[in-house]
DNA sequence: GGGCGGGCTGAGAGCGCGCTGAGAGCGGTC
DNA sequence: GACCGCTCTCAGCGCGCTCTCAGCCCGCCC
């Protein structure tokens, strides 16, 4: 899941990038309002975290502008406690949730997950394809009722594929959304991780769950294979 | 916006029809599962509201069946609070949102509007000609309901032809668009690949699907042949 | 009927895509 | 410092896909 964090306090921004990165999110940073708006427009993010007080363009305006353009990406606002603005303003301008600083990191992650789950399209709480079930909230995966333990990267990969069940998802799209957007390493990572996933959810020689679409990427069969 | 409400409690169904009608929706009712499935298939609705407990066929099954047929119309499930089924089961079967009874009418309308704003998941339109169907997103091709496995080149060729269904497409245009723009090899490749395609979608001696237009190229018949 | 040119096809060579095992790097934990 | 788990790189391999080639078929024109 790709996030854009627009926050001008550099130390907070870095901390968020590290922390959310460890949770399996791919995090991009923007440090002022205009940059934030531009990247939000072009970046194909799964959610935005917007500070309100920003140089250049406030978080309010970014959100308002995006909504006016018909962009309904889930937005979580960060508001300063000191009250100059209050939560209702943010929500009026189209934010989906807000947090007052200082906020608990755990709460931030929980709210983000909630946004991603129900936010954009009212998303199913759990994703499933046949007897394969993935729960983004608890980060658990079950195949035929038994739990399968996945590493963060494996989980992110499977989650992205399952959010596009049935579609053939190209390796470049996977690199974009599951790895860092500007990942410049060996694209072979994708193949390697597909291999790991298969061993865990299909067994070594079976590939009903994760299908290869030669020349086009990979696909989760709608019926789980 | 056309809605289909599948609900067996007559009074609730009538109330929904009146209430949603007043909101500007056009509401059709079905009172049991089979009727619901049939109408959902044929009716071209913008969204469905499905009760789970239904005579004939449960809301679960209706949803599951529609999804299996590739119908991704937005579905809002109504679940009874008493817990025999829980929300997650519904979402697992491909519903887009759910409400537990008794529900607030205002919430129902809000959820419906959210669903409709999102629209059906943005599946690129599938291309079809008669019983020949090609889905660019999933990279799958079906002939008369059965899947046909194509290689990347075969797929690209068929996709291009089907994007110009009815037209006679010259070999040079095909070389231009399906092969590399400055392909300088043997133009006979096109004939070879047309041959491969025919064997897979028409059978060895049939060429109703991909027709030869002598001197001008090839054509996909608009009715699939 | 005969000749010609466009279209079709079977065989096969070459190679690039995708898969895998091994292992290095790195950060965290004891 | 030793160990462990996760991520990523690398090199090798096998198969399926792509394309070439040569020969044949068939429609069309004289």
Biggest chain pair interface: A-B, 19 and 23 residues
Q: What's the Cα radius of gyration of chain A? A: 18 Å
Poorly predicted runs of 5 or more residues of chain A: 83-92, 119-124
What is the element string of chain A, with H for helices and E for strands? EHEHEHEHEHEEEEHHHEE
Going across the major beta sheet of chain A, what is the strand order?
2-1-3-4-5
Broad structural category of chain A: alpha/beta
Strand element count of chain A: 11
Distance between the termini of chain A: 24 Å
Oligomer state of the chains in this structure:
homodimer
Tell me, briefly, the overall form of chain A.
Answer: elongated
Structure description:
- The structure is a homodimer of 225-residue chains.
- By secondary structure, chain A is an alpha/beta fold.
- Helix content of chain A is 39%, strand content 21%.
- Chain A is built from eight helices and eleven strands.
- Chain A has helices at residues 10-22, 33-42, 59-68, 87-92, 105-119, 152-163, 171-177, 188-201; strands spanning 2-6, 26-30, 47-51, 75-80, 97-101, 127-129, 132-135, 140-143, 146-148, 210-213, 217-220.
- The first copy, chain A, has a five-stranded parallel beta sheet with strand order 2-1-3-4-5, with helices on both faces.
- In chain A, helix 2 (33-42) runs parallel beside helix 3.
- The longest helix of chain A is centred in the middle third of the chain and has 15 residues, at 105-119.
- The radius of gyration of chain A is 18 Å and the shape is elongated.
- Chains A and B meet through loops of A and helix 4 and helix 5 of B.
- The first copy, chain A, binds a DNA duplex (30 and 30 nucleotides) through helix 6 and helix 8.
């Amino acid at each position: 899941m790709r996030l854009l964090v627009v926050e001008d306090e550099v130390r907070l921004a870095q901390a968020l990038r590290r922390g959310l990165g460890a949770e399996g999110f791919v995090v991009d940073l923007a440090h002022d309002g205009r940059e934030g708006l531009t990247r939000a427009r072009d970046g194909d993010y799964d959610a935005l975290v917007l500070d309100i007080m920003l140089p250049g363009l406030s978080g309010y305006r970014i959100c308002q502008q995006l909504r006016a353009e018909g962009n309904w990406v889930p937005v979580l606002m960060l508001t300063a406690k000191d009250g100059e603005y209050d939560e209702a303003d943010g929500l009026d301008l189209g934010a989906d949730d807000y947090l007052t600083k200082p906020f608990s990191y755990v709460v931030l992650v929980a709210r983000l997950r909630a946004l991603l789950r129900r936010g954009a399209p009212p998303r199913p709480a759990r994703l499933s394809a046949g007897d394969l079930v993935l729960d983004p909230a608890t980060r658990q995966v079950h195949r035929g009722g038994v739990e399968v333990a996945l590493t963060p990267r494996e989980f992110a990969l499977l989650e992205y594929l399952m959010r596009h069940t049935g579609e053939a998802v190209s390796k470049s799209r996977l690199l974009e959304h599951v790895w860092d957007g500007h990942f410049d390493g060996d694209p072979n990572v994708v193949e390697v991780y597909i291999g790991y996933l298969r061993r865990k959810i299909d067994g070594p020689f079976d590939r009903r769950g994760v299908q290869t679409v030669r020349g086009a990427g990979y696909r989760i069969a709608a019926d789980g294979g």
